[in-house]
Amino acid sequence: MESERSIDVVLTTYKRPEILLHQLNAIKAQSVKPDKVYLYQDGIDSFYKISIDGELLKEFDDYYIAEKNGGVWKRFEYACNISTSAYVCIFDDDTIPGCRWLENCLESMKKEKAVYGTNGVLIKDYNNYPSVHSMLNVGWKNPNEDSTEVDFVGHSWFIDRMWLEDMLDTGLKERYKYVGEDMYLSYICRKKGIRTIVPPHPYSSPDLWGCIPRYGNQYGINNLAISADSKNHSLMNRVIRELHDDGWNFIIDTDKEYIDMIEKEFMEEHQNVKKAIESDLSEIMNTDKSIYLYGAGLYGGYFYDYLSHAGKKIEGFVVTQNNTGFNSGIEHVPTVNINEFLNINQNPVIVILALNEFYHEEIRGLLDKDKIISIFPKKDRGYMYKDLIDYIKTSYSVTGK
Question: Which of 89, 160, 208, 290 is such that its CA lies 20 to 30 A from the CA of 76?
Fold first, then answer.
């Protein structure tokens, strides 16, 4: 008999295998360890295939490598067939959880049996879904201090294993191969009185989050994401309208005040984001050391403008030996490679603005702690680059990059 604390994890990979090791390490670092970790590799219907290194495959308790593309539903079917624990947590291939995510879900499940996830969706206008104004996101995109009921969740699903069986008997998975599995799971559970909930994502504790924001922002916005394909948007709209016609009532249908309350809470939460950004920027503004910037391309230009307008001189832009990093093209600000920077005598500091985690680690590994004043986004912060740049843009009129 399975333990009420037993959890299996199912990771999936498709066209982004470079993220898989990062995901696996995040699962190994969980405060509550899963019983088993499985991998579902979906097939690619194209002229190329992706092979996972055999040594990496050995890290999984079992795996399935599909010859043909099975779409987004197949990983749920695989999880249903392979999992033997009380609970199973399934991840999108671009989602890197905080180290207490499984703990957060398990503790929430003890309080209420529900579908739990990290990116919750509250529908405001299903006829125009998935346009940005048709919904309200809850979770890693809009942190919630307390458990929050939503219409459905995505990016990570923590559920009772038995509920997966209800997903297998539907014609939707044939008609909508690449979309709809997230909606259908919450729809079919709702018919049995099971709610869908985003567990707490406190701004001050990203370790509890189902997706660390800097990774969600980095991995989830590239052109390989299903949501980035405009052809899938019309399919998502067809699925949600079909399910609504079949009796799926959204929260707004019965409780518009609930939606208004959530939006008000987000407005208040954004004040915490503003305070955190101001605190981090003040660390840079108050230093008497020479400042150099590294990374983030266009964002580096915004950051340069912001500091310059505030009267802070930027001595230079740092690049790695292979010339990666931010090269501004601003004539009066020199570009120096990392070795030149390390040989500067006056003990300068570097502000790291790195969307690419690999470059970020490459630079940081060469520096001692005293030479780094700040890394954006910081690991213990709940804001993303977008929040930082939005703050900078509204603080003054951007005239630079």
Answer: 208
